[in-house]
Specification:
Length: 148
């Protein structure tokens, strides 16, 4: 993990969640939908600015629908990662984007605001809820670019 992380609450659980997040990012970059949904609870829900899905089958269908958008050789980038952790639940907030791994700048790929709620299960940490949104200027209806 190449980005700083702040942990609030239970430190050990926070470190476990940090490790889970790193593994999640790795699985996303493999673009294997079966592995991706394996990191989620059966009742996972996903929100973005245009849609909402509930349940693992709908989440899997969402990944399948957008799988052609992703390419090989990608990386998940994160900024300002904050983990709030208890022994059984965690909340992760950050800015994120999925982009090229080769370092070529792609300003057309925006940074998004991301939140993940995770729950500890018998199989380990799992994603219960995921939310991704683009900052938008409501007056112009255009994305607000985030520059780091």
């Amino acid at each position: 993990m190449s980005y700083p992380v702040k942990i609030h609450g239970e430190q050990q659980a926070g470190l476990e969640i940090q490790k889970f997040l790193s593994a999640w990012d790795h699985v996303v970059c493999q673009l294997d939908i079966q592995l991706i949904v394996g990191y989620c609870t059966a009742d996972v829900c996903f929100f973005d600015t245009s849609s909402q899905t509930n349940g693992i089958l709908a989440y899997q269908a969402l990944w399948q629908r957008y799988s052609s958008v992703f390419q090989s050789n990608i990386r998940v980038f994160r900024r300002d990662v904050l983990i709030h952790a208890t022994e059984s639940m965690g909340f992760i907030s950050c800015y994120s984007k999925v982009d090229r791994n080769d370092g070529i700048k792609t300003p057309e790929i925006p940074w998004c605001r991301s939140t993940l709620a995770v729950r500890k299960t018998a199989q380990g940490w799992k994603i219960q809820h995921q939310h991704i949104s683009l900052p938008v200027d409501f007056a112009t209806q255009r994305a607000i670019p985030l520059h780091f």
